[in-house]
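Lab notebook, bench 4. Still working through the backlog of constructs that have no structural model yet. Next entry is a single chain of 404 residues. Request: give me the structure tokens for it.
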Amino acid sequence: MAGFRNFLNSGHSPTLFAAFLYFAFSCCIWVLNGAMAPFISETFGLTPAQKGLMLSVPIIAGALMRFPLGVLSQYIGRKKATLVEMGLIGVAMLFGFFFVHTFSDLLAMGVLLGIAGASFGVALSLGSGSFPPRHKGLAMGLVGAGNIGTAVSVLVAPPLAQAFGWTTVYGLAACAILIPMVVMVVFAQEPPDRDAHASFREHIACLFEKDGWAFSLIYAVTFGGFIGLTTFLPTYYYDQFGVSKVQAGQLTMLAAFMGAALRIFGGWISDRWGGVNTLTVVLLTVAATLVACGFASGSLVATTLLMLVCFAALGAGNGALFQLVPLRWPLATAVAGSMIGELGALGGGLVPNAMGLSKQYLGSYAWGFVLFAGLAVLMLGMLRVMQIRWTRTWAEKGGRARSA
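Model written out:
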């Protein structure tokens, strides 16, 4: 406890809290269509492929919008950038409340939901910016735990949609975003560090390195799997097992909460055991549980338990990968982490599409699970090859930090 108190005193903890709240609300709104998918699908009579497209659009849009928001923060500051984004989120929610009447409108709403998904890089940089280098990893981990907002979304949105109608939930979200805006204005301050004020060339530098692509592809499985499955699971539980729309959200919440909570644990265990070792176990677990889910499609209990294990691994994998980022890019951690986060999030758009196409053209969701499990195995093979050079250059065996 004393160590954590020292950590909080070493930086500006109100800004850390404001960044966490901002990221949590953003994640909550980002997956809103996924949380309400059974209601939306019933309204428009969507095919499995259309469901997959609807669910993938916000994920892809959010990933693509992360870089522009990061550039904006260069010019006006990170705190002001968050306020601009939250203002745009409020406008987007009002569009959903007043103007979503067709499937085309719904896809446009998905693009607007991507505004909320753009928050990752700025949130982490804002929250960790006032902390010294030795504590930036923990600060980034605490802000990153704001992805627990996805669990809140799938828990809260379905009952609200059932009680008031799913378009009304957009209007309620427009009001709710005022909470983190007020907290940001009152409590946050612009951090004094200069790490976020990098040039365009510095931002994209890791794209010209094999390690940058390797990290991004692994993150596409860990975080992409987390956000993609969180978005898709309410639809899967409702269609596959015939549970109620509210129950589908509650079951998804259990898995999403597990993934969000285990992110911090993944970073902690990686400090001690090594990020490479942790990711090896993570990718093996993800592949095994997803294949098992494909064969357990007749059992709600087995699927739920397997998803809990899968999400625990995905959450730990997110933390483990970002334990390695500051080791590989010690002088540009926030910049490299932001770019990896942007590219990695694109992987989440693959999951709903793969599942929807699998169901529509192959008659079962199982092949969607198998496809993503195969990607996890490919990333594991790449990791084991790349780590040979990593442990000779910038990391100890297993992916631990090198001692001074």
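Notes after review: The chain has one domain: 8-393. The chain has a mean pLDDT of 91. Flag for follow-up if needed.
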